[in-house]
């Protein structure tokens, strides 16, 4: 017995990118009650579902909605306040100062949510410093992993810092669409003690790692711009000694990875790092943020090699303060230029790759039967929602 026509929505297009399988020329997608119930070539779909279809503009394609695997929504009210491009260290020093002095909760939540939806984003991995983004996202319909960020180099009492972090995270209940997690900030702003305290109770984290040349210099020699910044803000511990190895090796040598770890940036990868990364491939994903990395003079991540080595690769905008906006199409274009990705490879990273990285791939990230109908029209230049959280 066929479903009643009024319960179905049928969309046809010149091309459909399921992402999890090969593109379908002259394809069709059928949805019912917000779920995908069929996908295939138009002729076969029309035989199974002989009802009127919504025909997409002839030259356009249907793609899954985007998954932005790394954002900082709490910073977005300060877009344009810190000059870009400029080097990473002066940027983060100025951005941190502004945030600490001026952040307030008077930002209208719909500003952030509208920006996400206009960008075709149905899910994010967001870094929260003060616990505001869970409030923004709670009723938005956007799926999210919220990583409550822990850093303690400015704290005289690391144990108290951990308890405050724990208290902040526990204020927010989890749901099917939104979950809250602890996550260290970086290996140079979070002590080994706090890393290990977080790892005792957290199974999923998303720290920034190997982002800038300054990070590598600081870990290897204890010198450079990060050292000077830490002296200025009185956060250089007197007993700290540089480990003399790369950020990646330091991270894994100290067992900082959780059961599943989304490593953000991963620009400064040395030849000797690949062995340890390969050993941990089954417990990590990588989120690349090409526009932010370019704007902060961090370099170009080895995206091509991560993909060729079959790592789970996601894409993110980073904060709009450094990534300019939440525009995932711009990130896709940047990934194609910087990493040599094809359009299909970049699209997969921006959808299914992000969904896998955030553990949402059972619900979103590709156009497959049983998944949510989070669908966009793409005409080669812009996107528009067909169905989903932005419709």
Index terms:
391 residues, alpha/beta, TIM Barrel, 2 domains, seven-stranded mixed beta sheet, 15 helices
Detail the topology: elements first, then pairings.
Layout: E1 8-16, E2 24-32, E3 35-41, H1 42-48, E4 54-55, E5 61-64, E6 66-71, H2 88-102, H3 109-118, E7 121-128, H4 133-137, E8 143-150, H5 158-170, E9 178-184, H6 192-201, E10 204-205, E11 208-209, H7 213-221, H8 225-232, H9 247-253, E12 260-265, H10 273-279, E13 284-288, H11 290-295, H12 303-308, E14 312-315, H13 320-323, H14 328-339, H15 343-357, E15 375-378, E16 383-387
Parallel strand pairs: 1-4, 1-5, 6-7, 7-8, 8-9, 10-12, 11-12, 12-13, 13-14
Antiparallel strand pairs: 1-2, 2-3, 5-15, 15-16
Mean pLDDT: 91
Under CATH, the homologous superfamily of the largest domain reads: Metal-dependent hydrolases
Give the % helix: 25-40%
- Beta percentage is 15-25%
Unreliable residue stretches: none
Broad shape: elongated
CATH class of the largest domain: Alpha Beta
CATH topology tier name of the largest domain: TIM Barrel
Based on helices, strands and strand pairing, what is the structural class? Answer: alpha/beta
Radius of gyration: 22 Å
How many domains, in number, for the residues? 2
Structure, explained:
The structure is a single chain. The chain folds into two domains: 5-64 and 379-387, Roll (Urease, subunit C, domain 1), CATH 2.30.40; 66-364, TIM Barrel (Alpha-Beta Barrel). The chain contains 15 helices and 16 strands. Helix 5 runs parallel beside helix 6 (192-201). The mean pLDDT is 91. The protein has helices spanning 42-48, 88-102, 109-118, 133-137, 158-170, 192-201, 213-221, 225-232, 247-253, 273-279, 290-295, 303-308, 320-323, 328-339, 343-357, and strands spanning 8-16, 24-32, 35-41, 54-55, 61-64, 66-71, 121-128, 143-150, 178-184, 204-205, 208-209, 260-265, 284-288, 312-315, 375-378, 383-387. With 391 residues, the protein is α/β, with parallel strands linked by helices. The two termini are 30 Å apart. The strands form three sheets. Strands 1, 2, 3, 4, 5, 15 and 16 form a seven-stranded mixed beta sheet that branches. Strands 10, 11, 12, 13 and 14 form a five-stranded parallel beta sheet that branches. A four-stranded parallel beta sheet has the order 6-7-8-9. Helix content is 34%, strand content 23%.
């Amino acid at each position: 017995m066929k479903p009643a026509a009024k319960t179905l929505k049928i969309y046809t297009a010149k091309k459909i990118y399921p992402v999890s399988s090969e593109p379908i020329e002259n394809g069709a997608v059928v949805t019912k009650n917000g779920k995908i119930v069929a996908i295939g070539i138009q002729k076969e779909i029309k035989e199974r579902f002989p009802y009127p279809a919504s025909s997409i503009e002839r030259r356009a394609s249907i793609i899954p909605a985007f998954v932005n695997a790394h954002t900082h929504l709490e910073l977005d009210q300060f877009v344009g306040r810190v000059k870009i491009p400029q080097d990473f260290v002066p940027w983060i020093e100025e951005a941190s100062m502004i945030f600490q002095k001026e952040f307030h909760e008077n930002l209208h939540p719909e500003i952030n949510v509208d920006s996400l939806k206009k960008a075709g984003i149905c899910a994010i991995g967001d870094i929260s410093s003060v616990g505001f983004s869970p409030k923004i996202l709670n009723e938005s319909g956007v799926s999210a992993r919220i990583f409550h960020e822990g850093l303690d180099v400015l704290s005289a009492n690391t144990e108290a810092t951990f308890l405050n972090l724990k208290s902040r995270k526990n204020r927010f209940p989890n749901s099917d669409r939104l979950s809250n997690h602890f996550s260290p900030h970086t290996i140079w702003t979070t002590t080994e003690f706090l890393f290990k305290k977080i790892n005792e109770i957290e199974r999923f984290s998303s720290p920034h790692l190997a982002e800038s040349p300054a990070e590598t210099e600081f870990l290897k020699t204890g010198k450079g711009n990060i050292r000077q910044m830490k002296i200025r803000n009185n956060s250089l511990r007197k007993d700290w000694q540089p480990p003399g190895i790369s950020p990646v090796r330091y991270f894994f040598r100290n067992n900082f990875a959780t059961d599943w770890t989304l490593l953000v940036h991963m620009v400064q990868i040395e030849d000797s790092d690949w062995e340890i990364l390969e050993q941990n491939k089954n417990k990590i994903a990588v989120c690349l943020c090409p526009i932010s990395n370019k704007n902060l003079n961090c370099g170009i991540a080895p995206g091509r090699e991560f993909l060729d080595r079959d790592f789970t690769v996601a894409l993110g905008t980073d904060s709009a303060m450094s990534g300019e906006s939440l525009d995932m199409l711009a990130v896709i274009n940047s990934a194609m230029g910087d990493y040599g990705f094809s359009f299909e490879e970049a699209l997969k990273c921006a959808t299914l790759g992000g969904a896998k990285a955030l553990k949402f791939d059972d619900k979103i990230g590709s156009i497959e039967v049983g998944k949510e109908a989070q669908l966009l029209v793409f005409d080669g230049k812009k996107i528009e929602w067909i169905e989903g959280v932005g419709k």
